[in-house]
Write a structure and sequence with these properties.
Radius of gyration: 22 Å
Distance between the termini: 30 Å
Number of strands: 18
Largest sheet: 9 strands, mixed
Length: 373
């Protein structure tokens, strides 16, 4: 039976404020309209049908996913124009082939000749063509062909000139915008430089007779604090903005009041001799993200209790101390609830098989994410 109130939930659990989710989604849509770019929201943060409907404005079109399991989940629920935003590899070609045959538009992403060879060895049904984006590295250093390399021009040209393939354009993830402490100006500069790199590559390709229909970038920091130069692009593909999190607030992407998710937990023990309290949320309810940052406030933010700091977690337990002074145990009786804004909502959401959706203190529904790869 669905609990009626957030105070009735079994803890730890993942809570989502539906009003903040809708506000965050609306703001990103409006930003894209202002910049004249297409929004292709990324589903990797929430991985739910309900969240996707909010992010797409109910259109069920133009989304990015990080796993084939997500692509299948959304395809089975009526979504189309899906980008599998992950470097293509041979072990996944049969599942991608099935999706490409079924959907009106299913796009894959390449950053290697090996990936292209795998595509070429896999034919589609008559009338169908592979739709391919070139993944570009504009300074993040994770995946993608370097934007200023001959390899980028060579691979894009090869894709474009191959029969049975539609070359869509350029895709990059500017994850280098996630630099703690750098500030909003740095994030905007990353967006500007990323745009310059992409446009430079697109110009080189045009000189080679290769047209880029789409030139896109996306990270929640970059798209939340978009620089004016990013209006030269055609597509944004952020994802985390639907929930935001403590990290995004520290980066300047959002305010704490924009964080739509939290983990509900309860005090289960008083360890007076060690001056801490124990909560029923360990790393399986929160993840370990944020501990390596060594923040004075800890790896998460306690809603309404700024003097509390999570100092350690085991699998199912968390230890909480006062940032200054000693714990006032009378304020945190055993059984009382606390609410944690996670450092990284993508990682924390992945710990939970159900999200409880609330309006104020009232539980109004549940979202069930897909899992797996």
């Amino acid at each position: 039976m669905l609990p009626e109130n957030i105070k009735e939930v079994s803890t730890p659990c993942f809570l989502v404020d539906i009003h903040i989710v809708k506000k965050n989604a609306r703001r990103m849509r409006e930003r894209c309209q202002q910049f004249g770019v297409q929004l292709r929201p990324h589903m990797k943060t929430h991985k739910t049908i309900e969240g996707a409907l909010v992010m797409t404005g109910g259109t069920k079109r133009k989304i990015a996913v990080s796993t084939i399991a997500e692509a299948r989940f959304y395809a089975d629920n009526g979504f189309d124009d899906i980008l599998y935003a992950f470097p293509f590899s041979a072990d996944k070609k049969e599942r991608c082939q099935k999706l490409a045959n079924e959907l009106g538009q299913f796009h894959v992403m390449l950053d290697s000749m090996e990936g292209l060879s795998s595509i070429l060895s896999t034919s589609l049904e008559p009338g169908k063509e592979w739709s391919i984006f070139l993944e570009v590295d504009c300074g993040y250093g994770r995946t993608g062909v370097d934007w200023d390399s001959d390899a980028a021009v060579e691979l894009a040209t090869k894709i474009d000139k191959t029969n049975g393939i539609q070359f869509q354009g350029l895709y990059t993830h500017c994850g280098n915008s996630y630099e703690m402490g750098a500030g909003p100006d740095f994030i905007r500069e990353v967006g500007s430089k990323t745009t310059e790199c992409l446009m430079d590559l697109a110009k080189k390709l045009k000189n080679c007779g290769v047209s880029c229909k789409t030139i896109g970038t996306g990270s929640t920091p970059n798209c939340s604090l978009a620089s004016e130069k990013m209006a030269a692009l055609t597509e944004f593909h952020p994802g985390n903005y639907i929930f935001y999190d403590y990290m995004q607030s520290l980066l300047g992407s959002c305010k704490v009041d924009d964080i739509a998710c939290c983990v509900a937990t309860r005090v289960i023990s008083h360890k007076v001799s060690q001056q801490h309290i124990v909560i029923d949320c360990g790393f399986l309810g929160l993840s370990k993200q944020g501990f390596a940052e060594n923040l004075a406030s800890g790896p998460c933010l306690f809603k309404g209790h700024s003097n509390l700091r999570l100092v350690g977690v085991t699998q199912e337990l968390g230890k909480v101390k006062a940032i200054e002074g000693e714990i006032n145990y009378s304020k945190y009786p055993i059984g009382s609830m606390l609410f944690l804004y996670p450092f990284h909502s993508c990682a924390t959401a992945a710990m939970h098989s159900v999200y409880y959706i609330h309006s104020g203190e009232k539980i109004v529904g549940v979202w069930k994410p897909t899992r797996g790869w």
